[in-house]
Amino acid sequence: MKEKSYAKVNIFLKITGTKEHNGSTYHTLNSRFMLVKNLYDIIEFVPQKCDTFTIEGLDIPKKQNIIYKAYKALNAHTGDLDIIEFFYNHKVVVKKNIPFGAGLGGGSSNAATFMNMVKKACNLQIETEALANIGATIGADVPFFIYGYNSANVSGFGEIIEEFEEEPLNLEIFTPDIHCNTALVYKAFKENYLKDAKANAGASYMLNSSLDILNSTKDATKLNDLYKAALLIYPELKKHEKEGYYFSGSGSSFFKIDK
Questions:
Q1: How far is the C-alpha of 108 from the C-alpha of 17, rounded, in Å?
Q2: DSSP 15
Q3: Mean pLDDT of the region 61-76
């Protein structure tokens, strides 16, 4: 079994405040997520006898690997022994093309693709919404990828997904050799810009097509609240700015419409 694990961009990303959830404080947002169909990783389940859950292709300690976290979360939720048995007889092989720390959701996409593949391979009797709820415990972007929409309005902590019916844009992506730490970028936003956040920020954008949103401004800081915060931590991003490019997520990727 082999599947593509697509990247995404944030057409816009507006922070709307913070909220307590399960004893922790999280930023809330309004955003438009769009799949990037020409940039993807490959995830494959390869037959092989394994003494333990085995992942190849990612130079990350297993316990820190989001795919392993997805495996553990699925086991905990379903209690389905077929999952354990399946991965005694298959290894997970990942071919990475999506850069790390690039604001393109590569890790979250991998986790979601893995979960959807396990659902199919093990014939799990679980609804997509329930699978997305499990995914939300692993990473804020995971539910979007589980639903598999081309485009969606995303709000709350990232768990509220509303499909926006439009075709994916042809996008050109530029990722400088800078790894942006999401936690540090959000921390910088909280310390410097959170006081100005508005609960309805980005609400008007959610009504418009992604093409119209991007055509409405050439100012990357206007569409993505995290860009100014990222510049505080990674000022070298500034020299990579290009006219007509926008900033995705917490960075470091820039994108533009490829005409």
A1: 23
A2: E
A3: 94
Task: Extract long-range pairs of 187-193: CB within 8 Å, 24+ residues apart.
Answer: 188/229, 188/230, 188/232, 188/233, 189/15, 189/27, 189/225, 189/226, 189/228, 189/229, 190/18, 190/27, 192/228, 192/229, 192/232, 193/15, 193/225, 193/228, 193/229
Spatial CA neighbour of 77 closest among 7, 139, 135, 33: 135
* Residue 23, C-beta contacts closer than 8 angstroms, at least 6 positions apart: none
Dump pLDDT digits (tens) for 79-100.
Answer: 989 999 999 999 999 999 999 9
- pTM, two decimals, is 0.94
Compute the distance between CA of residue 72 and CA of residue 63 in angstroms, rounded to an integer: 10
Which residues are part of the catalytic machinery? 8, 141
Tell me the pairing of strands 2-21 and 90-95.
unpaired
> What are the CA-CA distances from residue 223 to residues 10, 35, 161, 255 (Å)?
9, 18, 19, 12
